[in-house]
Amino acid sequence: MIEVTASRDGEIREIAIRVGDVVLKNQELMLIGSPELSTLILAVANGTIENIVVKVGDKVKSGQVLVRIDDQP
Question: Does position 35 have pLDDT exceeding 90, yes or no?
Answer without folding.
Answer: no
